[in-house]
Specification:
The structure is a homodimer of 198-residue chains. In chain A, 43% of the residues lie in helices and 13% in strands. Chain A has 198 residues and is of the alpha/beta class. In chain A, helix 1 (6-14) packs across helix 2 (22-35) and helix 2 (22-35) crosses helix 3 (37-53). The model of chain A has no long low-confidence stretch (mean pLDDT 92). Chains A and B meet through helix 1, helix 2, helix 3, strand 2 and helix 4 of A and helix 1, helix 2, helix 3, strand 2 and helix 4 of B. The complex binds zinc ion (2 copies). Chains A, B: Residues 80-175 form the Toprim domain.
Chain lengths: 198, 198
């Protein structure tokens, strides 16, 4: 192994993967080279293509190689329901777990003035246009109930109110099967403050 | 996310990485697309190049993009010492941890007739040529002490004996700082059978 051999370059480059340190990078490199070159070559090609061509859907801001993502382009989705999430991965989770058939909007974060994240960074101007142009009857907020998340939710709720759109938020609390002693304190506090009459 | 979107293709392709299931593949894809496209693009390029160009060194059979790897091509390495390992990754470990300055030979496995792995599959003909052509004075076996590993070691030792080359093997036993109760039984048995007088 001379310095900067192609093998060492590969091991270094693999460290851009989340959670991959020097040891796992080496293990991955040897695995691909010795056992799955075809898979590695295919991954390399798709990855190059994806990094270049995947952009944000202009309607919902999720990741897509098309100007409109598959959900936004699907005429059978219910344009009356609009669900606001923080990250594209949350759309995948909702699509897999629920029968929600409305549309989405991806913020990409939460309002955080100190970090320079204002309404424009979250695309709230785009969301505002959608509330104006589209037949949205209910805006569902799936935003984490942190301080910044709540501020973001309030900001969006105010905007929706100006357009006469009903705003709801998904329920937060102890997960199904979650044992109380293992649930984090914030969730437990939320579950108590959000208690309902039987 | 329509079926077979470029994003889904990327998530599927990432599963060729060892230990990466559907959830981590998704996490990696979003991480690269949202936070490190430049790193992802560089990785894709190097990976494509590596899968295509990295082959086996013709002298030691380790992975290299050159016909001769950096170690084999280095005239300052001691050609009198030849260390036989099972995998290329073991060369990296030995180079990092020891001051060994000899040369290597990579088997790529162990003799296993039932799996169709014979002397040729391990390149033992190449090793034999080296013992004949090169000034090897000591052949060091760094082969794991399993049944198949021992059979492989014996086969190589016989071949070395025919060329009048001294054969040694690295010590196996309880690792430094290893607490006996946590060491696996096979290692502990080896440590006992390999005990030396104080
Ligand atoms: Zn979209
Ligand atoms: Zn070599």
């Amino acid at each position: 192994m001379t310095e900067r051999s192609l093998l060492n370059q590969l091991i270094d480059a693999l460290r851009c993967l989340p959670g991959v340190g020097p040891k796992s990078a080496q293990r991955i490199a040897f695995h691909l080279l010795e056992r799955n070159r075809e898979g590695g070559a295919r991954l390399a090609q798709i990855m190059a293509d994806a990094m270049l061509r995947i952009q944000r859907c202009r309607r919902c801001r999720t990741l897509s190689e098309h100007e409109l993502c598959g959900i936004c382009a699907n005429p059978r989705r219910d344009a009356g329901l609009l669900c606001v999430v923080e990250q594209p991965s949350e759309i995948v989770a909702i699509e897999q777990a629920t029968d929600f058939r409305g549309l989405y909007f991806v913020l990409g974060g939460r309002l955080s003035p100190l970090d320079g994240i204002g309404p424009d960074e979250l695309g709230l101007d785009v969301l505002e246009s959608r509330l104006h142009d589209e037949p949205v009857s209910e805006l569902i907020l799936a935003i984490s109930p942190t301080v910044e998340g709540s501020a973001t939710a309030h900001y969006i709720a105010d905007s929706a109110a100006r357009h006469g759109v009903r705003v709801t938020r998904i329920a937060h609390g102890v997960p199904l099967g979650g044992e109380l002693e293992y649930v984090d304190g914030g969730t437990l506090a939320l579950a108590f403050s959000g208690r309902r009459a039987l």
